[in-house]
Amino acid sequence: MAKFLIIDDSPDDRELIARTLKKTVSFRNAEVREAEHVEHGRRELEGGEIDCLLLDFSMPGESGLDFLVDIQLRFPELPVVMITGEGNERTAVDALKSGALDYIVKADISPDSLEQAIGKAIEKKHQEVEIIRHAHYDELTGLPNRRALFNRLQYLEGRAPRGVPPYAIVFMDLDGLKQVNDAMGHEIGDRLIKEVAEQLRVCVREGDLVARIGGDEFVAILENLTGDGIKDSDIATARFRESIDRHLFDFDGKVVNAGMSVGYAIYPTSSKSRSDLLAIADKAMYADKQARKELAKKAN
C-alpha cells in the first residue's frame, strides 16, 4: 500500500488533497499522513517510509521551497510534487529547479491531475535513483561512497544555524587487508571488504550512515547523540571494533583474521568545523591503529 505525506499549513487544503487522493484510481487505498509545518513533516519522513511527498510551496517559517533543498540531501530517493495556490510560471520554475518533480496548482486539483502528477514524479524519481546510485554508492559493497558522505555532512552543516544535536564522525580502517590480498589474492580481499561492510551496516541505527571512502577505509556518521555525545560514541565505536575483531571470516575454508582501528570526533564537543572534525577523527583512528600494533607486539 502506497504511503503519502501531505505538508501544508492549511487544514482545509490538507483535507482537500487527501480527499482528492482517495478518489484516484491508483491511490484510493493509500495511507495518507499529514503535517502542518515543515518540522513536523521532517519528523514524519525520518520516522518511516513515504512513497511520495505532496508539499505546499508557501508556509510560515521554513517554506516548502527551502525544505526541498534539505530533501535532496537527506531523502534523495523521495518523489516530491509541489502544490501551491500560486499559478505563475516563476513559481513552477523555482519548484522544479529546487527538486520537485512535478507541480500542481490547488485550484486545478482533480483526481486525474493529481494521479498524473504523482505518477510522473514517481517514474522520474525511479530514473533519477538509478543515476544517483551509480554516483553515490560504492560498487563493491553497496555502501554510500565519499560523495554521499560529504553530502550528508553538508546537510548537517547547513542545519547547524538552526541547532543540531551532537553527532559523531567515526573513521575506521580495516587492518591487514594488504596482507590478505598478497597472501590469498584480491578476490578474497574483495569478499572480505564486502563482509566487513555488512558487519558495519548492522551496527548503525536507522538514519545513521556508514560509507566506504577508500580501499580499506570506512566512515560512519552517528546523529542525535545524547548529552555531549562521548558515551554514545564510545559505545558505538566499541561495537564497530568488536563486530570485526570477533567475527570469523571464512571464505571456502580460508580463514581470515581481520581487525578494525577506530577513531571519532564529535560535533560540537571536538569542533564545529567540518574539516577539523574529519582531521580529528582521522588522527584518533591512526592513534588507535598504533596502539593496537603495540599490543600485538607485546602479545607476541
UniProtKB/TrEMBL annotation:
<dbReference type="GO" id="GO:0000160">
    <property type="term" value="P:phosphorelay signal transduction system"/>
</dbReference>
<feature type="modified residue" description="4-aspartylphosphate">
    <location>
        <position position="56"/>
    </location>
</feature>
<dbReference type="Pfam" id="PF00072">
    <property type="entry name" value="Response_reg"/>
</dbReference>
<protein>
    <submittedName>
        <fullName>Diguanylate cyclase</fullName>
    </submittedName>
</protein>
<dbReference type="InterPro" id="IPR052163">
    <property type="entry name" value="DGC-Regulatory_Protein"/>
</dbReference>
<dbReference type="Pfam" id="PF00990">
    <property type="entry name" value="GGDEF"/>
</dbReference>
<dbReference type="InterPro" id="IPR029787">
    <property type="entry name" value="Nucleotide_cyclase"/>
</dbReference>
<feature type="domain" description="GGDEF">
    <location>
        <begin position="165"/>
        <end position="300"/>
    </location>
</feature>
<dbReference type="InterPro" id="IPR043128">
    <property type="entry name" value="Rev_trsase/Diguanyl_cyclase"/>
</dbReference>
<keyword id="KW-0597">Phosphoprotein</keyword>
<dbReference type="InterPro" id="IPR011006">
    <property type="entry name" value="CheY-like_superfamily"/>
</dbReference>
<feature type="domain" description="Response regulatory">
    <location>
        <begin position="3"/>
        <end position="121"/>
    </location>
</feature>
<dbReference type="InterPro" id="IPR000160">
    <property type="entry name" value="GGDEF_dom"/>
</dbReference>
<dbReference type="InterPro" id="IPR001789">
    <property type="entry name" value="Sig_transdc_resp-reg_receiver"/>
</dbReference>
